[in-house]
Amino acid sequence: MIGQESRPYNPDGHVIAARADIREEPGELLLEKKGQRVRAGKKHIRPVPGKNILARVTDGINGVAIVAIFFAAWEVLPRAGLVQAMFLPPATTVARAWLELLSSGELLKHVIISMQRVAAGFGLSLVIIIPLGCLIGWYKSFERFVDPLVQAFRQTSALALFPVFILFFGIGEFSKIGMVFWAAQWPILLGTISGIRNVDPLFVDVARTFGIKDLKLFIRIILPAAFPSIMTGIRLGAGASFLVLVAAEMIGAKSGLGFMIINAQYNFETPQMYSAILTISLLGLAVNYLLVWIERKAMAWKEEIVPT
Predict the structure, then answer these.
(1) Do residue 141 and residue 286 come from a single domain?
(2) Does 180 lie in the same domain as 161?
(3) Any idea which of 6-15, 111-120, 134-143 has the lowest mean pLDDT?
(4) Could you report the per-residue pLDDT of 251-264, keeping only the tens digit for each?
(5) Cα separation of 157 and 51, whole Å?
(6) Burial of 129 (0-12, 13-18, 19+ CB in 10 A)
(7) Is the pTM of this model over 0.85?
(8) Which of 150, 120, 158, 182 is nearest to 247 (CA)?
(9) Distance of CA 270 to CAs 77, 122, 172, 244, Å?
(10) What does the alpha-carbon distance between residue 224 and residue 195 come to, in Å, rounded to a whole number?
C-alpha cells in the first residue's frame, strides 16, 4: 500500500525501507547499517543531515592539538636538558632562524630552485606516464608485452640510479630532473593502470549500447571512473618527488633545499638545517592539499555517504 514501508532481507546486512509514495519522495530508498542511515535517490546518494559539521570541527581541533603537543615537546625537551640542544635546538630557536632566512631572501631563493626542479620532473611524468598508463591498462596485449620490463624497472631505486644519471646528464639540472621523473612515474603509472583496469565493465557495455565510440567512450566514461585511482597515484608521485629531490640536491648541487640542509650540517648550523627540513615538509603538505582540492573539485559530481 502507498505510504507503507517494507523491510526486505538483504544478505549484506542492510535493512532497506522502500517508500512507494511518489508524491513526497519519488524512488527514495532508506539504507540502514550499524546505526548509519542515508537516503538514496534516483541520481545519487545524499547524506542525511546530522552531526557532520560538529564531527569536522572536532577532527580539526584534534589535529591542531596533536601539532601543538609535538611543538611543545620540541620546545621543552631541549630546554630541560633531556635532549642536547646542539643536536635538536628548541622550536623557538628554529623558528627565529627560519624567519631570518626568509627575511634575508636566502630561503626563498632555494625554495624557488627546488620547486622548479620538482615541477619539471613531476610535470614531465604527468604528461608522459598518464597516457602510457591508459594504454597499458586498456590494451591487454600491450600490457602483457611491457609488463616484465615495468615490473623490473619499478623495483630499481632512483637513488641507486643516481650515478647513471650523472654519467648521462652530468651534475647539472638534467640529472636532478631525471631523478624526480624516475621516482614520480611509478606511483602515477600504477595508479593509472589500476584505475583503467578496474572500471566497471557494465559502464562500458551501456555506453557502447548507446553508440558511444572509442575516443568519446574513453574521455566520458573510462577516465572519470578511473580518476580517483589516478589522483591517488599522482599524490604518491608528488611525495616521492620531494624525497628524491632532497637526496639529489645533497650531491653535486650548489642550490636548493637539499643543498641547504647538507651545507648547514657541515657548518654546524643546526637551526638553519631544521628550518630547511621544515620548509620541505610544509611544501610537501601544501602540494598534497592542493591535489586533494583539485580532486574534490573535479569529482564534485560524486557525493559521499556520511554517517549520521
Answers:
(1) yes
(2) yes
(3) 6-15
(4) 777 888 999 999 99
(5) 46
(6) buried
(7) no
(8) 158
(9) 16, 30, 27, 22
(10) 10
The reply to whether 284 falls in a domain is yes
For 72, the 3-state DSSP assignment is helix
Q: Hey, how many other C-beta atoms are within 10 angstroms of the C-beta on 141?
A: 6
Is there a single domain that holds both residue 31 and residue 102? no
154 has a pLDDT exceeding 80: yes
SS3 label, residue 39: strand
Count of domains forming the chain:
3
**276, 257 Cβ separation under 8 angstroms:** yes
Task: Work out the number of other CB atoms within 10 angstroms of the CB of residue 97.
Answer: 22
Residues 31, 128 within the same domain: no
More confident: 268 or 15 = 268
CATH number of the structural domain spanning residue 292: 1.10.3720.10
C-alpha cell at 138: 586498456
- Structural domain boundaries enclosing 34: 8-48
Q: Do 56 and 158 fall into the same domain?
A: no
Report residue 110 as a C-alpha cell. Answer: 632555494
Give the C-alpha separation, 216 to 231, whole Å.
21
What does the pLDDT look like over 71-105, one tens digit per residue?
888 889 888 888 888 888 999 999 999 999 999 98
